[in-house]
Design brief:
The chain is an alpha/beta fold and 231 residues long. It has eight helices and seven strands; from the N terminus they run βαβαβαβαβαβααβα. Helices cover 39% and strands 16% of the residues. The model has no long low-confidence stretch (mean pLDDT 92).
Amino acid sequence: MVSKFRTCLIIPTFNNVSTIGGVVEEARKYISSIIVVDDGSWDGSARILARKPVITVTHRRNLGKGAAILSGLQAARRYHFDFAITMDGDAQHRAQELEKFLEVISRLSSPVLVLGVRDLERIEHVTWRTRWGLFWANVLLYLSTGKWVPDSQCGMRAYPVVETLSLGARGRRFDFESEVLLLAIRRGIPLFHLPVEVDYPPSFRRISHYRPFWDSVRILLLHFRYWLGRG
């Protein structure tokens, strides 16, 4: 089915030199329009991206994952895309899952926020901290919106570009995705939950810039701000 919506892929990356080239090549099997946001990498990622047929947006310094996604969405709007799928540059998200997102988008008649949903019980190398962190993030979102979302933290999503930018989310790090979801629910943007498969390598091989304590604090403060009516 041919979609009425133009769709691109956004890949935020920071020091993923060992994976970003392969992630782009795998993604190109499923989608041709790719925006990579290099969030201040210093590990040689830029040289790899220069050889790839992608739109590259470069931050001079590291601004955070949320800032990278925001820059990608702004670029998507400049290029007149209606939807932007996001996937990480560390090879955690499987490129073949893009087919599922594109299929869902092809059946839409209006803007919807499509959320990837992981089954953490079936994924290897997922720590109890990750499971508990997701549970409490979901609880906080429920307390802020009255809506239960099974996976509020999966980074593989499809954003309706104009509608997402109009939300005015202020978070610039890992709190951005939580804030967008909170605001989308309050704005009445419909959600679609899409089961996705992801790969978690063992902790000693994992490249992650998520800081469990500080980024969890950011998400908690985000919800406190909205509870106090200061969002």
